[in-house]
Structures are given as C-alpha cells and as structure tokens.
Amino acid sequence: MNEANVTPQTGQENADRYTSLIVALIVFTTVLAAVLAALQADANIRADTANRDSQYLTILASGELTRSGLESNYELTVFGDHLKNLQEATVLELTALEQETDGKDKAAQATRALAAISQASADMGKKFSIFYTDPRYAPPSENDLPNTDQYLTDAFEKANEIVARQNQAADAYHAWDYKADTYVNALTVLAVAFFLFGLAQALKDSRTRLIFVVFGVVIILFALLITITTSLL
Amino acid sequence: MKRSNWFTSRFEVVNAMLIAVVSLTTAFAVWRTNVMGSNAAEHSHLGLIDAVKKQAFENENYRKVYEEAGFAYQFAVKQAEVEALEASDDPIVQDQAANSRKYLLPNMQLLAQPLATDEKYQNTDGTYDLQKRLADMQSAEESQLDPAASFARADSFFSQERWLVVGSIFLAVSLFWLALAEVSSERIRSWQFTLGLGLYLLGVLWFAGVELIFFFMRRGG
C-alpha cells in the first residue's frame, strides 16, 4: 500500500525535474532571439542605407569625372592653341628678321603682319586660359611654364574624394550585410535550441531531458558566441 | 481535484482567444513593418533615379557649355586676328580684315551664341562667364529633382521600420508566453499569461506610439 503511494510521487518528481531550468532557458533563448532579430533588422537597414549611398556616390563620381574631363579638355585645348600661336608668332618674327637681313623688306612686312595675327591670337588665348588667369597655375615669371601638374591634380581631386567616399560606403555595405547574414545564422541556430528545449519539456525521463538541455545550452552558447563576435566586428 | 474539459475551462478559452488576437496583431505588425521597409526601399530607389536624371542633365549642361565655350573662344581669337589685320598699314591686309569682319565674324558669332551674343555672359576682359551660362541652363525639370529629399524620406521610413521591429518583437514574445501558458501546468500558467498580456499591451502601445510619432514627423506622409 505504501509502495503504491510512493511510486507516483517519485514519478512526478522525476517528470518535474529540470522544468524550471528549461523554462528559464526558454526565456533566455526567447530574449536572445528577440535581441538577435532586432540586431539583424538594424544591420539589414544599415546595409541597405550604405548600399544606396554607395550607388549614389557612384553616380556623383561618374558625373564629376565627366565634368572634370570636359573642363580639362577645354582648358588644355585653349592652352595648346595658345602655345601653338605663340610659337608661330615667334617663328614668323624670326623669319621677318631674316628677310630684313636679306633685304626682302616687302616680304618681311607681310611676315610681320602674319606674326602680329598669331601674336594677337596667342594673347587672346592667354586671357581665356586658366593656366594664366588663375594664380594657382600661372607661371611666376614670363620665362616659366604654367603649373599643369597642379591643375590636373586639382581637376580630379573632387572626383577622387567622391570615389574614396564611395569605397567607404561600399565597404560599410559589405560589413553590415555580412553582419545581417551572420545574425540570421545565429537565429537559425537558436531555432534548433528552441526545438531541443521544447523536446526536453515534453520528455518524462529526467536523464534524456538533461541531455537535450545540455545540447540546447551548447547551442545557445554557440549562438551567443556568434552574436558577440559579430557585434564587435 | 477534478479538472474541467477544454471547452469549459474559462482560462484556456480566454487565452486561446487572446492568442488569436495577438497572432493577428503580430501578423499586422510584421506586415506594417515590411510596408515601411518597402516604402524606404521605394524612396531610396526614387532618389537614385532622380540622381541619375539630375546627373544626366548636369552632364549634358556641362557638355553643352564647354561646346559653346569652344566656339566662343574660336570667335574671340578670330576677332583678335581681324583686329590685328585691321591695324596693318597694308591696304590688301586691311581689305582681308574688312571682309573677315563682314562675312566671317558674324557667322562665327552665330555659332558662338549665346556667349558671344548675350552681354550678360561677357566679362570686361573679353572672356565669357561660363558659370553664369551653366546656371541659366538649368531647366525647371532639373531643379525639381531632389535626390537628397527622397533619401531623407527613405531614412525616415528606415528609422520607423527599425522601431516597429522592436514593437513586433514585443508582440512575438508575448505570443510565445501566451502559448506557453496554454500548455503549462496551472501552477505557472497565471504568471506566464500575465507576462504575455503585459508584453502584448506594451507592444501595441509601442507600435501605436511609433506610428503616431513618425506620422507627425513626416507631416502626415
């Protein structure tokens, strides 16, 4: 009679063993899953924003390269034209001097007129050229050449700056996208932990229950490790 | 103690109804959160399209202004050449200058318009104001394109999505606890039910608060 009373109590105790621990673990897993879901959503949004910024900066960089290309093409054409006219004027002046020396005065006069035309063109080109009007590139004296290297550096500086920002945004996109993917992995792992704890809750045998709990805890620790290392990246 | 059956247990029926309500609310919250995500993506996309259009306008404007600048430069140089010819003592050269001024320069000036024809683009030193010409080239359609405004709106939707996700998580967690209360023993189900209900109410309040705040922040949008 006594035995009959004792046996069900032991069975009940056996069935209830670890119940509180499993509930606590389920609560912890739920909270962890909630935190992970929020982190994943946030990482995803940041990845989307960085991806958009990267694309926007690509458009701006492309536009800036077009603009600086057109501008430098114009400036270098004007500068080249000016140099050509200047050399023509010099050569024609020298020719006129030679002609004067040879006694060909009329020819020298005509050549001088041509030299004057070339000189007028060169002077006008100088007014139009940024290499003579901008103090950053203008030659310090008559005999020096303009600072074309500085001009080319300045002309593409803005484009290079935009490209650098675009690279940063692209890197940020990859980093946040990687984080978002890793959080999804951690959430998937947590789903396994949920399954194991649910199974442990349903089982009656305390030893089998404990085995599932231990496996569940290992999986939670693994998910925690993924979450912490990813968050610190 | 004799336990009542499923249909007569008031707690289980009430809890089951609450689970149904919470499930519907969670589904609605997740849908609404996704709508915000879609709106954000749509405005980001719109901003990028506007940026491409604006850039296309700008590229065309720059191409055109430098094309005009090239013609205007050629006109200015030819004009200087003609002036040099006119300064010559040789009557033959002067005739050439006269013909160039009469026939060549007007045609070159036409080609170089509006820089060479409109006084507002001409600087005192004989050069042209390209920046002013570029500013005048901007069309009304181009001025209306504002990628930054679309991106700001997208950011607002992204922000709302972020906060709604938190609300959706409250609702999902409350659903979990209510479901647990349904299957747990009577000893612990009451606090599980209370926790689930509390989280549900918190989630609903959170959700409504986020919606209202962003509604007013976007001025009804």
Describe the structure.
- The complex is a heterodimer of chains A (233) and B (221).
- With 233 residues, chain A is mainly α.
- Chain A has one domain.
- In chain A, 89% of the residues lie in helices and 0% in strands.
- Chain A has seven helices and no strands.
- In chain A, helix 2 packs parallel to helix 7 and helix 6 packs antiparallel against helix 7.
- The N terminus of chain A is likely disordered.
- Chain B has 221 residues and is mainly alpha-helical.
- Chain B is built from six helices and no strands.
- Chain B has one domain.
- At the A-B interface, helix 2 and helix 3 of A face helix 1 and helix 5 of B.
Concise synopsis of the structure shown:
The complex is a heterodimer of chains A (233) and B (221). With 233 residues, chain A is mainly alpha-helical.
Biggest sheet layout of chain B: none
N- to C-terminal distance of chain A: 65 Å
Residue-averaged pLDDT of chain A: 87
Please compute the radius of gyration of chain A using only Cα atoms.
41 Å
Number of strands of chain B: 0
Number of strands of chain A: 0
| Average predicted confidence as pLDDT of chain B | 88
- The count of domains of chain B is 1
Assembly of the depicted chains: heterodimer
What form of chain B results from the Cα inertia axes?
rod-shaped
Q: What is the succession of H and E elements of chain B? A: HHHHHH
Q: Which structural class is indicated by helix and strand composition of chain A? A: mainly alpha
How far from one another are the termini of chain B?
Answer: 58 Å
